[in-house]
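chain below, 174 aa
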Amino acid sequence: PHQNPAGQLVNLYGRAVDVGEDKAPRELRHDHLPGRRGNFNAPALQKPAVILCEGGFDALSLLAAGYPAAAVFGLDGLRWNWVKARRVIFAFDADGPGRAALEKEARNAVLLGKAVYFLGAEAYQGHKDLNEAWAATRQLDLGPLGEAEEERAAILEAEGLTRAEANRRALGLE
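prediction:
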């Protein structure tokens, strides 16, 4: 289900799965109803800290392992006005599109005054995403979180903002 931060259903998502040798065609693997999209477990965006991942199955794996998680449906599916968490831990897939989205969204988070963290490679246990790691081992050890403090300083400098200005912007004071 796609939800808004209040937990209301706003859309639905379906996924075809492979069965044995029968592979679902790539273009039919993911489907959403027409209309606006939400996030998987969007109420988690209101907590003090949230792990943001790419897709409902990764979020389900994190939830099963005891972590607060919300998922975007597609790497452009994050509405920052919904994210009230002050600490954002990115757990996007460990592939090219996931890394590119991490850079883009971490920048957005920094400009909104969020404390930004990301998972190290060991959290993925050699797999492409957290769901694959969970399916293989039935455990997720997120390991030490990488703090994006150097990246934050570079982003603020490039934007011509001080940390105080970014924090005031995040609080809606500017």
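The two ends are 35 Å apart (CA to CA). The first helix runs from residue 56 to 64.
thats it, cya
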